Amino acid sequence: MDKIIFNEAQRIWTEIAQHKTPGELKLEVELYKKLLNIFQVGDYYYMVFNPPEMIIEFTSNSITPVLGYQPHEFQLDKLMEIIHPDDLPYFINFEATVTNFWRQLPPDKVKKYKSRYDYRVRKKDGSYIRILQQIITIQSDEDGAVLRTFVVHTDISHLKKDNRMILSFIGLDGEPSYIDVDPVQRLTPYKEILTPREKQILSLLAQNLTSKEIAAKLDIRYATVSTHRKNILGKTNTSSVLELVQLALEKGWL
């Protein structure tokens, strides 16, 4: 791995934390709440990252079936090492953009956004898969310095075949979202086209639930689900659930 690139990534992540040292914190409740905001559309693993100390404090056992590594093998240097060489410059650029975005947020907004973008990583067997990386802050101080983040890597190789990497900031709790961000341009809020109910149904469709199963789960009529489904396809100009899910990943609706 290029030492210069690794040092640059380390500088960016340390800058997020503004060189603050995290205190002791029980993370279980925060992790649970944050996990609800990250929808999975494939095999995934998750981590708790500590920017001030530049360490991955925890990696889930599910990393093994996804990448082939054991949790204890996976630290920041390993992640940087396995990123596809063609994607690494974009990764560094996106991380710098993410850092600037979080630094500009008021302290009370830091936990109300998740960043997301995709890139290719090398599995232990040497093959590459495309992962969707989603990050949310689970601990910050009174000044808004990011002390711990919750990171989810989801295998989306089956959903995305092109190599265009897309960076987005998804607003939570009613905050505006910024989709397909160009790192060199000013951020413009994204205009939502789906209602909260339509997004809820979309997330269930992405889990391969049928309209009948969705109706039972949400305790609404089958005809209502069918109407929502038709409206979602119409609004998004898609003709199938697969095409819809692929677009939803790109637009940050999932």
UniProtKB/TrEMBL annotation:
One of its GO terms (molecular function) is DNA binding. One of its GO terms (biological process) is regulation of DNA-templated transcription. Residues 187-252 form the HTH luxR-type domain. CDD domains: LuxR_C_like, PAS. Coiled coil: none annotated. Keywords: DNA-binding, Transcription, Transcription regulation. Residues 115-168 form the PAC domain. Pfam families: GerE, PAS_3. Gene3D superfamilies: PAS domain (3.30.450.20), Winged helix-like DNA-binding domain superfamily/Winged helix DNA-binding domain (1.10.10.10). InterPro entries: PAC, PAS, PAS-assoc_C, PAS-like_dom_sf, PAS_fold_3, Sig_transdc_resp-reg_C-effctor, Tscrpt_reg_LuxR_C, WH-like_DNA-bd_sf. Transmembrane segments: none annotated. It comes from the Bacteria. This is Helix-turn-helix transcriptional regulator.
